[in-house]
Amino acid sequence: MNHAIISCLLANLPAAEAVLNDIDRQGIDTITCLGDLVGYGPQPNEVVELIRKRGIATCQGCWDEDIIDGLNACECSYPSQLAERRGHLAHQWTDDQLTDENKSFLASLPTSLRRDRLLFVHGSPNSQHEYLLPNMDAFAALERVETAGADILFCGHTHQPYVRELRDGSIRVRLQNADHDCDQGEELTLPMRKIVNAGSVGEPRHGSTNATYVIHNDATDEVEIKEVAYDVGRTCQAIVEAGLPKVFAWRLSHGFEFAEQAEDASHVCER
Amino acid sequence: MRSHQGKCGYLRLDGYPSNGLEQASDSGIDKAFLKDQFPELIDLSDSHHASRSQQGDLLTLIELPQFQAPQHAGLTGMDPRVKNQLEALQLHPDRHLHFGRDPELPNKDTLEFKKLESFSLSLNASVWDPPSLNTLWFELVNGAYGDVYRAKALMNLPDGRSMFFNWIVSQESSQFLPLEEISAPNGRPASLSELIVQGKHLDGLRIQSTIDLCLLNDAVLEMHQMPLRDRQKEAIPST
Questions:
Q1: Domain boundary among B109, B127, B142
Q2: Mutation test of the interface with chain A: which of B135, B155, B221, choosing the one with the most A Cβ atoms within 10 A?
Q3: B21 touches chain A (CB under 8 A)
Q4: pTM of this structure
Q5: To probe the interface with B, which of A76, A82, A246, A252 has the most B CB atoms within 10 Å?
Q6: Closest CA in chain A for residue B136
């Protein structure tokens, strides 16, 4: 059966509506959302209410957590002073806009969802804030999936959709025992695991302004990355009308992130 | 100028208004950059040095902003008012080159715009967060604050370096050149720092407000500079 995974809606209502319409047209009725319903974008309440109304199973994203718990930055949060200050401005604006009811909903979200051998998280099983970038060290990536006890890990947060298969790996362990002057060796064959990143609905970062999401077939394990065009101009107009920085609209309309994110694939989030 | 064996001089003329159009004011960026690259450069706008224009081996670069190409090639195409200005300085040009006309100069450096808005900002004593500067420049030259046809700047970095930034809309990418002179990482530098932008529909207020988010305050600047000073101390062998 096909099911859809969406992530990083970031208060972009036209993008969220377009993606959900695209999923509906395909007759898919199981949808999982990987969080970041709010942040930077101009319609935080509308997006939260859309997800609530549709009853979409959702885990908590980094923005959702920050709105509830306050900012607690690690260096992976913002790669520049400008990005940090823009992020704080957007955080304050979103905090002011969100209703108490919608904040309570964000606070109630779990940090992960599990269905059999499938695990759904926002960033990584360790943290909503950790980036599993596509070029992350393979051993570290496998460790994230394996220790979480999943065959397939669905994540978002990077805004770059990708499917990464981790297979044909092995670890050779050699124990040298000085007392007995003998070597003991063992080779472990690592299981095949998969990381699927859903990209971003509300703030794409894949070279186009199109929203992205993924469809997974749980019988065949086939994954399809989907792109959906939406009315970017409508969101940009709403950004300006909301009094958010105009540069957010400019960046979104060119397929750039509102504020650029860290790209160090070796970084381990210390939040 | 790099290949010239003798002394080099520089003179910037202001140019003249034309049909109600005003020339943009000179930011001093070119002179500061040339002075850094050629420390012996003679500034002929300084009256103390004007007499040195007679030195036989002096190669003088004279810059003159113009709204349109001269009608005639060579020296005959020079504006008589400019000739008079130069004669007063005892300068007798032997060549007159114009961007877009003479092959000695890059032909892409010509902009055929009758009217440009200009935005300039003094950034003296300002020091940038380097990744923020990268973002600001990217946004600026790609149109986030209006249609930018030309942008030029001298920017200070916390490690004491200054960078010359140069953008022309007709070229594929910006030019980023480090200046030779490096300030000690000890507070705010005294060197010239300016930004000048030309284009249309420029939103100077938004440029300014973004810049404000990029500049380092004293405490953060000290955080950048203290380890640099410590490393410099360690590098000096004790006697």
A1: B109
A2: B135
A3: no
A4: 0.84
A5: A82
A6: A82
Report the Cα–Cα distance between both ends of chain A, in Å, rounded.
37
Q: Does B132 lie at the interface with A, CB-CB under 8 angstroms?
A: yes
DSSP chain A: -EEEEE---TT-HHHHHHHHHHHHHTT---EEE-S---SSSS-HHHHHHHHHHHT-EE---HHHHHHHH-----TTT-SSHHHHHHHHHHHHHHHHHS-HHHHHHHHH--SEEEETTEEEESS-SS-TT----TTS-HHHHHHHHHHTT-SEEEE-SSS--EEEEE-S-EEEEEEEETTTTEEEEEEEEPPPEEEEE---SSS--SSSS-EEEEEEETTT--EEEEEE---HHHHHHHHHHHT--HHHHHHHHTT--SS-----TT-----
Can you tell me which residue has the tokens 């095949």? A192
Last residue of a domain, one of B89, B109, B129: B109
Complex prediction ipTM: 0.84
Q: Which conformational region is residue B23 in: left (phi greater than 0), alpha (psi within -120 to 50 degrees), or beta? A: beta
Q: Is A248 on the interface with B (CB under 8 A)?
A: no
Q: Is B26 on the interface with A (CB under 8 A)?
A: no
How many CA atoms lie less than 13 Å away from A45 in the CB half-sphere?
9
Q: Do A81 and B213 make contact, defined as CB atoms within 8 angstroms?
A: yes
Residues B65 and B122 reside in one and the same domain = no
A164 vs A152: CA distance, rounded Å: 10
In a domain, B205, yes or no: yes
Question: Which residues on chain B are in Cβ contact (under 8 Å) with A252?
Answer: none
Structure tokens at B136: 């600001």
**Residue whose structure tokens are 């380092």:** B216
Cβ–Cβ gap A246/B206 under 8 Å: yes
Q: Collect all residues of chain B within an 8 Å Cβ-Cβ radius of residue A81.
A: 129, 131-132, 213-214, 216, 220
Per-residue pLDDT of chain A in tens (271 residues, 90 and over written 9): 999 999 999 999 999 999 999 999 999 999 999 999 999 999 999 999 999 999 999 999 999 999 998 876 666 678 899 999 999 999 999 999 999 999 999 999 999 999 999 999 999 999 888 889 888 888 888 888 888 889 999 999 999 999 998 887 777 777 776 666 666 778 777 778 899 999 999 998 888 899 999 999 999 999 999 999 999 999 999 999 999 999 999 999 998 877 766 666 666 666 6
Any chain B CB within 8 A of the CB of A129?
Answer: no
CB A7 within 8 A of CB A213: yes
For residue A247, which residues of chain B lie inside 8 Å, CB to CB? 139, 144-145, 206, 210
Q: Which CATH number fits domain A2-166+193-252: 3.40.50.720, 3.30.300.30, 3.30.930.10, 3.60.21.10?
A: 3.60.21.10
